[in-house]
Amino acid sequence: MEQAPCISQIANLLADPKRTAMMWALMDGSAKTIDELAVLAGVSSASANAHLTRLAASGLLRVEARGRKRFFRVAGADVSAAVDALASTTMASFARRATTPSEPLIAPVALRQARLCHGHLGGEIAASLYRRMLAAGWVERHEPRTDVSPEGARRLAGLGVFTQALAQNSNAPLACDCFDWSEQQPHLGGALGAALLQLFLQSNWISVVNDTRALQVTETGRLEINRLAAPGVP
């Protein structure tokens, strides 16, 4: 046990609901003052300062001085990934038990719209795309697996995404459901999900927000992604 990673130290910090509320409010990559975070967590400024000081001292938050005010933001991408993983596991556990949480998990708008999820696209735009791909017959579910149809492979090849090559060159499944904690429904995972994310990044339809899981979607990107597998679109 002495050689085990000291993850309990971080776990103890995040076990406090007030601290997690403040961490959650910063998951969109924003920087906020003590007073702003105090309001969001429902505590006094003095209490918020004490919590934030502990989070900063632990390396979870970074402090930026702007004049007389101190702003706090998430310290790195690893912190955002850890909090995102906790959110995903929490909501997936409720889904497996067929129960609902006592309070809804409301994600910051930027995270809810589009975010990184295990190397592929997650969030509202990803869940919507997956629904269209299923409805258009590009992807077919055959429990417990998910397959890309011949029509889907043809359409994806037209985008420069070659499913046969992906299947041969990846250790991950070609396509699979990935539970989306903010949408409470699946989006596309696997090698195909990762390939589509790379396509969107290379096309400058989306971009990564530093040290966060949030992805910024351009107006052109939103239009183009929403056209994929849309009814009536050739």
Order of helices and strands: HHEHHEEHHEEHEEHHEEHEEH
Structural class assignment? alpha+beta
Q: Could you estimate the helical fraction of the residues in percent?
A: 40-55%
Count of individual beta strands? 11
- Terminal Cα span: 60 Å
Strands of the widest sheet, in order across it, are: 1-3-2
Measured by DSSP, the beta-strand proportion falls in 15-25%
Cα radius of gyration in angstroms: 20 Å
Supply the number of structural domains.
2
**Tally the helices: what do you get?**
11
Outline: elongated
Low-pLDDT runs of 5+ residues are none
- Return the average pLDDT rounded to an integer: 91
Largest sheet: 3 strands, antiparallel
Tell me about this structure:
By secondary structure, this protein is an alpha+beta fold. The chain has 2 domains: about 70 residues, Arc Repressor Mutant, subunit A; about 120 residues, no CATH class. It has 11 helices and 11 strands. It has a 3-stranded antiparallel β-sheet with strand order 1-3-2. The chain has a two-stranded antiparallel ribbon with strand order 4-5. The longest helix has 20 residues. It is elongated, with a radius of gyration of 20 Å. It starts with 6 loop residues before the first helix and ends in a 7-residue tail after the last helix. The mean pLDDT is about 90.
How is the secondary structure organized here?
Blueprint lengths: L6 H8 L2 H9 L6 E2 H8 L3 H13 L3 E6 L2 E6 L2 H20 L12 H5 L1 E3 L2 E3 L1 H12 L3 E4 L2 E4 L1 H9 L4 H7 L6 E5 L4 E5 H13 L3 E3 L6 E3 L1 H9 L7
Antiparallel strand pairs: 1-3, 2-3, 4-5, 6-7, 8-9, 10-11
